[in-house]
From TrEMBL:
Protein name as annotated: LysR family transcriptional regulator
A Pfam family recorded for this sequence: LysR_substrate
Domain of life: Bacteria
UniProt xrefs under InterPro entries: LysR-type_TF_proteobact-type, LysR_HTH_N, LysR_subst-bd, WH-like_DNA-bd_sf, WH_DNA-bd_sf
Organism: Myxococcus stipitatus (strain DSM 14675 / JCM 12634 / Mx s8)
Alphabetic keyword roster: DNA-binding, Transcription, Transcription regulation
The family this protein is said to belong to: Belongs to the LysR transcriptional regulatory family.
NCBIfam families xrefs: PRK11139.1
Single GO biological process annotation from the record: DNA-templated transcription
Keyword DNA-binding: yes
An annotated Gene Ontology molecular function: sequence-specific DNA binding
HTH lysR-type domain residues: 5-62
Family annotation (CDD domains): PBP2_GcdR_TrpI_HvrB_AmpR_like
């Protein structure tokens, strides 16, 4: 068993010797100068030695105090290093970003490594839902919304305006619109359809052709599934050029012919408060930067104005 004086007395002596001031030691340890003086006196009585010469407004270490101080300082420094090594690192801030299922899987997930590099002090939680979440209810910090762009009570920034066109695997050997009837048409089933929804029927009307699908049809309720079917060579799909930008760049998909159809606006939205603006600044800047990269790589038009509501 170690025969040691009270730890509080050792702490008081080490702080007072380091500062050569009872008052500064008291400020550091959140006690009164009288308490420091009492604890140092207690140590001196335990040792049977004087450690300080006390003068008006200052103290000076005695010969014995100078001998004791280095070991006390090193001892407390070693203790601090040991505790810091075991202490759990501070938890990183977790931000939750919500978007549609297709946008999350096709656009956000592949860019998670870029997010980690750009925002090393944050963790990202992706919330995928085709239903618009209520940001005021908490649980979600910001969202990428796809639709007309009416986001009352929220700060909204345009990321890009989508375009739709026929795409397919190069393995199909589609050379032009005359090959359209040789392969199934792949559809994404929209929840709400009007005259401006980018469907195959609207595409045929825009192309001045009669709608017909002699090669058959495939229908999917999830847009990412429609894209995967196109990549697998199962037909020609009418899908978002934003969501297939990587596949078009890599050659996994081709856009064999036009015309292109206007799609919908992607907006980054969050609560319009100073606290949110400050917390979300890094991820907001990252998203806007990634949107600019996509715009530079692919002919995705970025323009203002309303588009038909998708989800």
């Amino acid at each position: 068993m170690r025969d040691l004086p009270p730890l509080s007395a050792l702490r008081a002596f080490e702080a007072a010797a380091r500062h050569l001031s009872f008052k500064k030691a008291a400020d550091e340890l959140s006690v009164t100068p009288t308490a420091i003086s009492h604890q140092v006196r207690q140590l001196e009585e335990w040792l049977g030695l004087r450690l300080f010469e006390r003068h008006v407004r200052r103290v000076v270490l005695t010969k014995e105090g100078k001998e004791l101080f280095p070991s006390m300082r090193e001892g407390f420094d070693t203790l601090v290093r040991g505790i810091d090594a075991l202490r759990a690192p501070p938890a990183q801030e977790v931000l939750t970003l919500s978007s549609t299922v297709a946008f999350t899987s096709k656009w956000l997930v592949p860019r998670v490594p870029a997010f980690r590099a750009a925002c090393p002090g944050m963790d990202l939680r992706l919330h995928a839902s085709d239903e618009a979440v209520d940001l005021r209810a908490g649980g979600v910090d910001l969202a990428v919304r796809y639709g007309r762009g009416a986001h009352e009570g929220l700060r909204a920034e345009l990321l890009f305006q989508d375009r739709f066109a026929p795409v397919c695997s190069p393995r199909l050997g589609v050379g032009g619109v005359e090959d359209l009837g040789r392969h199934p048409l792949i559809h994404f089933e929209w929840r709400r359809v009007d005259d401006a929804t980018p469907t195959w029927s609207r595409w045929f009307a825009s192309a001045g052709r009669r709608y017909r699908a002699p090669g058959g049809e495939l229908r999917f309720s999830d847009e990412s599934h429609a894209i995967q079917a196109a990549i697998a060579g199962q037909g020609i799909a009418m899908v978002s050029l934003v969501l297939v930008a990587e596949e078009l760049a890599s050659g996994a998909l081709v856009q064999p012919f036009g015309p292109e159809l206007d799609g919908f606006a992607y907006h980054l939205v969050h609560l319009e408060t100073p606290r949110h603006a400050e917390r979300l600044a890094p991820i907001r800047q990252w998203l806007l930067s990634e949107a600019k990269k996509l715009e530079a790589r692919a002919p995705v038009r970025k323009r203002k104005g309303n588009a038909p509501r998708r989800r």
